[in-house]
Amino acid sequence: MYAEVIVRSNTVYTDNLFTYKIPDFLEEIIRIGHRVLVPFGKSNKPIEAFVFKIKNNYEKQSNIKIKEIEDILDEEPLFTPEQLSMVHWMKNRYLCTYMDCINMIYPKGLKVKNYKVISLKEGYLEEYNNLSEDEKKIIRNISENKGKIKVDKLKYIKNINNLLYKMKNKKIIDIKWEYTSTKNEKKIIIVSLSSYIENIDEYISENKIKIGVNQRKIIDFLKLNEEVEINDIIEILKISKQSINSLEKKGIITFKEEDFFRKPKLTYKEKAKKIELNEQQKEVSEIIKGEMFSDNKKPYILHGITGSGKTEVYMDIVDFALSQGLDSIILVPEISLTPQTVSRIKNRFGEIVGVFHSQLSEGEKHDVFRAVRKGEIRILIGARSALFAPFRSLGVVIIDEFHESSYKSEMNPKFNAIEVARYMSFKNNITLVMGSATPSIEEYYRAKTGDYKLLKIDKRANSKPLPKIKAIDMKQELNEGNKSVFSRELIEKIKENTYKKNQTILFLNRRGYANFISCRNCGYVMKCEHCDISLTYHKRENTARCHYCGFEKKVPKECPECKSKYLKPFGTGTQRIEEELKKLIPDIKVLRMDKDTTARKGETEEILGKFKNKEADVLIGTQMISKGLDFPDVTLVGIMSADMMLNFPDFKSFETTFQLITQVAGRAGRAEKEGEVLLQSYNIDNYAIKNAMEYNFEKFYENEIKIRESFEYPPFRNIISVVISGDNEEKVKKNIYSMYNSLKYLFKGRGYDDLSFILGPNPCTISKINKNYRWQLLFKDDFVEINLLKGIIKYVCITKRDVVFDKNINISISVNPNSVL
User: Fold this and answer.
1) What is the dihedral of CA 192, 198, 203, 209, to 10 degrees?
2) Model-level pTM?
């Protein structure tokens, strides 16, 4: 029997299936999905690999010796055949390697470490007197280490590899590869009274066993508590571990090892509420539940306005799935994975709910996957990577706020969680529900054309109207002498709201104090030394910081160019909003929530907990506060600069503007009190802003889809972006033209003389990030079939990479990217 495996390697050169013979002792054990150890390369270094196929025969090729699998690394297969099929699909869909995709489903915390070991051969003493001093030193080291030593421990000896090679040829030493396989897992010791002893006191008396005072405490405690974790006994009874171990040796108590699952501490608590679904919620939920076991169901788009109770519908669907023995995944964008959301779902379903996101430690992530595999977790809430959790009976995938750009990964594999969920839905008959108040244009178009089933909820759960949005023209404010970032009406409304003991949310999608720092005298702008981008001013530390690579420097007192004193910050960020508000309303209590204030674990929970407990009147924030928050006393929302995103050089900028306005406005008036929204803008006549003020998604969609069709943007055409980067600009330019010429040659060979579907090569809009210069080619599947286009790009960029490109050149391929900056 033979197995086809993928080896763990980071190079494109090994991105193929390799065939290995299955040894006799593994034939009845090995299965598809097993993690195995195989000898690889000329040195036969043991390397981790994954079994993709098993077959009975192999067509032998001359002069090729088939190596054998050395061992399996786990009792049960790590991956299911369905997961491996998905890996294969993702590899082809996103033009990446097998290992890029395997890493998405690979449990965190598993590690295989391989190393070379030297041992002495019999008869080595015969040659001892003829050896050099260094060779004798090696033998002494081996002898002192019980006849065996790792090569790494001898690196201090000069020319060590050459010496070892000579000694091996002289048959003095033997060199072999060895490995250790580790799992980042924790166990706990459970203590109980010995079950075979009917009466503990009689047993101690009859056998004349001496029992100390602390040991008597332990026995009495265990009479009242059948099974207790060993550390709990030590802490509660204030005794030593030695006392417990002594009782175990005497046979009076027994130890049992159990798995321990690390869980993040959740300090934020939400009161459990019994909520009855309204008619619209019931109707939507019943449709989805009624079709759950239908083989020809479509994915669902749930278009529900803000505050319509989509989360309650999700929980009703999940509850039904549980009753049918099915597990569920609830995906939320990373920024919306608020303690509020988690707490509400945990209140309903208890300990079977798990959480998976980027702020978990490696150990916590590993334990989440372990708990899912063991059936301890039946419902998983998480960001996009939670989609790859190893559920055995997955029945429902819910994607909340599915319009969010964070569902598209910017790291290899550059997958789209919606596409992967759609694949899982069709392949495994899983119910897929995608909910949003502002659906993405591409996915809504698919619903309109029949690919999805469109369901709507157009009333708020509390039966209250959506908060009215009033636009404030900031050009007029400026003309009337108001140079503040706050309009006069907004300040008066905040004062009035605070006086009534209500709360306010202020939204600005830019952190820091000011957008950039410039000299009014000569026009100099402080720019990042590693990126082609201006630095953002952070006043508290008096630093200018790059939000792309993290570079920062102190702001000088004078202009580096002209030495004038007119080096000043321009523009507005959340820090400046906070400072100005405190100047205008001195007694107001303010909290700020952005990437700077939530960088450490637990800070998001702390800020939201304080706001929930009314320790602040105003919450200022970036996109993080635009969704997932539900505070009953928030009756006013201020959108500080509604048109900030409109001038962004991206075809989705109007869509993003509409979504942010609608989502942030929806934070007001979510309970019994009515809400209102003040929207500050310099461009109040733009259709995205006007449609958002009317909550008219259909009208916005009609306007936007016409523009997309005219310019042949998604969903009418696919876009593929290839970015070439490196630390030498001329080298990057040379390589992207080498790629372009290779593509040109291949397309012309297939009869394509018009290459207008290739845009570029050009420098990226942000032409340098983190010391790497960036050039880009963009492709539209206009006049060319998408699979042919992807196939040729893959051939040039992956298969023939070492022919077309120089070393130290980075290649980033993204299918339908969120941004082409």
Assistant:
1) -10
2) 0.80
